[in-house]
Amino acid sequence: MNAPAVWKWATATTLYLLVSFAFSWPQVTSPFDLVVARHFDPFDAWWVAGRPFGAWINAFSDETAWPLGQSLGKADSWVMVAICSVLRPIVGPGGALAFLTLLGPVFTALATQWAAERALGARYPWSIIAGITFGFCGLSATAVLEGHVYMLFVPWMPLLVADLLAARDGSVTAARRAGLWWALCLLTSAYTGMNATFAAGMILVFGGGPKLPRPHLRSVWWFALICALAGSAYAAGFLVNTNNYRVASADAVLNTVERWQSGSASIASLLAWYPNLDLNLHSVAPCLSGVAIALAVFGVPSRGMRVLALVAAALSLGPTFRLVSGQGGFPWIFSLFADLPGVEWFRFPVRLAHLASLGLAFAAAASASTLARRAPLVTIPLLIASILEPIIIMAMPWRTMTAPAELPDAYRVAPKGWAILDLYPRFEGRGSDLDSYFGGVSCMYQSMHRQPILGRCLDTTLTGEPRTILSNWVTTRVLDPNNATEVLTNVEFANQLGKLGVGSIVLHVDAYLPGDAADLRTGLTERFGAPVVSTNGGERTEIFVNPMLSASPLSREAALTAWTNFENPA
Amino acid sequence: MVLAVAFLCLLSVAGAQTPAATATIPEPAAAAASAVAENSTVGSETAGTQAILFQVAATSSGVYDRFELRLDRLGASETLYLSDDGSLGDTPGDGVFAAVSTGPYARTVGVEIFAWQSNGARQLVYASIVRTNDINYSVISWQIGSRPDGRAERIATDWPGDSTVNADGLKVFVVLGWLAITLAYAGFAAGRRRA
User: b/e per residue, A59-84, with b = 16+ CB within 10 A?
Assistant: First the structure.
C-alpha cells in the first residue's frame, strides 16, 4: 500500500472511530462494566458473551433454565458467539461486547467505503458517504439500543455486493468470496442472511445497473454451490434446535399482520427518529439518511442500487402502509403473505431497511463522486452533512441509556453449586418489557455469580420456563397458602425446593410494590429464616438460603427427575 | 485487523487496571445457611447520584390542577408535588407538571400518582414499578386524558426534554425540513454539474 493509500485509510478509520465513539457514547469511557443500550436484550447478550460454553453448535448450558438446561441453538448470532468466545478470556464479556459496539460499525463502514470504490467507482473522500450511511445507519442505532450488537459488525454485506458485481466477468475467485460473505451474513443473524439473499437475488437477476451487468453464469454456479452448502448446514442446525425456539409468547394472541405491524417501519420512521419509537420493547426506527436519499434521487449512476434501496425500503413497511407508526394505513406488500405457512418466524420486516441503507450508501457515494468531478466545493457540504447525520437524524447518543453491570452483593452467600431462584413479579400488557428486562438482568447476574439459575436466557418466551413456574409455586404458597393445592409445612416447603436443587431464593424487592414485597419477605423469613440483604447494583436484594440442603449439591439428573415429578404429580 | 489488535491491547491494559465485571467474586466468609445472621447486610451502595425528572402532561384533560407523586426508591419513600410554574426551566402554564428527585441509583422505582381536582377530590391515576433507564439521569413521563378511564399513560420523552405529543410531531417536522434542505441542495449541486 502506497503512502497516499495509507493516509486515506488512516484518515477514514480515524473519522469512523470518532463517529463510533459518539454514536454509542458513553460506552468508550467504560467498556467493561457499563451497559449502554435502552431495552432488555443487552443483558441477555452479556450472558452470551459471558457464558463459557463448552462446545460450538451443540453447546448446552446445564446451569441455565435449571434443571432443564439451555441450548445455544437459539443464539441470534453465531458470529457474535465466535467473537465473544475468543475475546472473553482476554477482556471479559463487557470488553467483548464493547469490541462489537465500538469497532463493529468501523469495520462495516470501512468495508462499505472500499466496496463503493471498487464496485461502483466512487472516489475518496466521497466514498466516506457510503461508509457513514451504512455503518451508522438507523438500524445500527437500533442495534446499539436493543443490544443486538452483532448487527453492527456486518462488513460482509457490502463485500458481498462488491464481489457479486465483480463476478460479471466470470471470476471464480470473486464468486467464491461472495459465497463466503453470504455465509457470514447468515451466521451474523437470520435477518442479515435474508438481506444478503435478497441483495444477491436482485443482482443476479437485474445486475447492478446499466454499466454493471449481471454476474457471469460460471460465477453464478460457484456462488450458488457455496450458498447451498452453507445454507443447508445452517438449516440443519435450525431444524435440530426447533424445540428450543419460541413455542408461545405474550404476543401469541396477535395475528400475523398485527405482529408484523409492530415490527415494521412507517414513512415517518424511515425518515427520522422520534421519541415514541423508543418507548416500549424495541426501537423500530430505520431512519434512512437524508443526504443519501437526496444524492440518490439526483444522482445519475448506480440505478441498480437505487432500485435495491427503494424495493427494500418498500418491503420494510411490512403489511400496512402507514405515515406514522402506531396509526392506521392501508394494506401493503407483506399483507399478501400473511396466510403462508411458516411466516410467523419472520417478525421484523423493518430489518429489510438495512439493505435499503446499503443500496442508498452505494448510490450516494457514486452520485457524490460524479457531482464532485465538476463541482467539488459544492459537494463538500453534502459530505459534512452526511457525517453529522447520525447525530442529527438518529439523535444518537441522546437515545442511549446506561446501567451498571454490577452484581448485588447478596448473591455472594448463595450456597455453591445449588440453583438460585430469582423472584420477580409478572408484568403484563405494556409493562411486559419489564418481564424481559428482569429476566435479562438475572441472566447477566449469572455470568457473574456462575451459579445455576432457573430462568432462560436465549428465549423471549417466559411462560413455561422453570423460573416462572417455580416462582408461581413459591408465591402462591407464601402469600396465599390456604388456596394452594396442598398445605406444606415449612420443612416440606424447603425440602421440595431442595429436591429441585434450589439452594436459595433471591427476592428482588424493588420489582414489587412495597406491600407485596413485605408480605413475601415475611413469608419467606418464616420458612427459610432471615435474609441477607444488599443494596447495590441499583437494587435491594434479599437472599433467603434454603436451610434443608444436603452437604453436597444435587446433581442435574436428580433435579431433572424431581422436576418431572414436580410438573406431573401422580 | 490492526485496528482490532490495537483495541484488544488497549482493553487488556485497561483491564489490568480496572476490575472487569467477570472478576472472581470473593468467597463469602460463611456461605452456609447456618451462618446467615438475622437480616445481615452485605456490601455497600453503588456510588453516584441519579436524578429522575417526573413529568405529567395534562395539557388536554382540563380536569386536574395539581399532582402528587409518591416515590419508593430503594426502600426510601418520598412525596413529590409536581408543579407547572416553570421552576425546572420548562414552560410555565403549559400543562406539563414536573418534579425532580435525586438519590442513589435505582434500576426501578415504585410510583404512585395522585391527581387533584379543583374541588379537592383526589384520584389515584397511576401505580406501578417503573424502569429508570439511566444511571445518572432519567426522564419518566405520563399523559393524562388519553385513556377513557382517566388513568395516566406512560409516554415517551427525554430529548430535548418536553413530554407533549406535539413535541414528537415537531421533531418529525425538523427532520422533514432537513430532508427538504438536503434534497434542494443536492438538486442545486446536480444542476450545476449538468450546467
Answer: bebbbbbbbbbbbbbbbbbbbbbebb
Handedness of CA A29, A31, A32, A33 (dihedral sign): positive
pTM: 0.86
Q: Which three cell numbers stand for residue A354?
A: 438495512
- CA angle A50/A425/A515 to nearest 5° reads 130
- Mark which residues 120-179 of B lie under 8 Å from A by CB: 127-129, 131, 133-136, 138, 154-159, 167-169, 171-172, 174-176, 178-179
Residues A553 and A504 sit within 8 Å (Cβ to Cβ): no
d(CA A250, CA A149): 25
Q: How far is CA B17 from the centre of its chain?
A: 32
Whole-angstrom Cα distance, residue B96 to residue A504? 45
Q: Which residues of chain B lie closer than 8 angstroms to A14, CB-CB?
A: none
- Say if residues B52 and B132 touch (Cβ distance below 8 Å): yes
- Which three cell numbers, joined as nine digits, stand for A98? 464493547
**What's the rounded Cα separation, in Å, for the pair A415 and A432?**
31
Q: CA dist B20 to A32, A144, A211, Å?
A: 6, 21, 53
The terminus-to-terminus CA distance of chain B in angstroms comes to 45
Mean pLDDT in each 10-residue stretch from start to end of chain A (570 residues)? 85 96 93 88 89 60 87 82 90 94 97 94 94 95 93 96 87 92 94 94 80 78 92 82 51 70 87 76 84 83 80 92 82 86 82 94 92 87 92 82 92 94 83 82 92 85 80 89 77 92 95 90 93 93 92 90 86
Distance CA A503, CA A494 (A): 9
Q: How many angstroms separate the CA atoms of A497 and A38, rounded?
A: 35
ipTM > 0.90 for the complex: no
Cβ separation B182–A293 shorter than 8 A: yes
Asked if A414's CB is within 8 angstroms of B154's CB, the reply is: no
The answer to whether the CB atoms of B11 and A534 lie below 8 A apart is no
The neighbouring-strand residues paired with A60 are A71
pLDDT band at B162 (very low <50, low <70, confident <90, very high): very low
pLDDT at B157 over 70: no
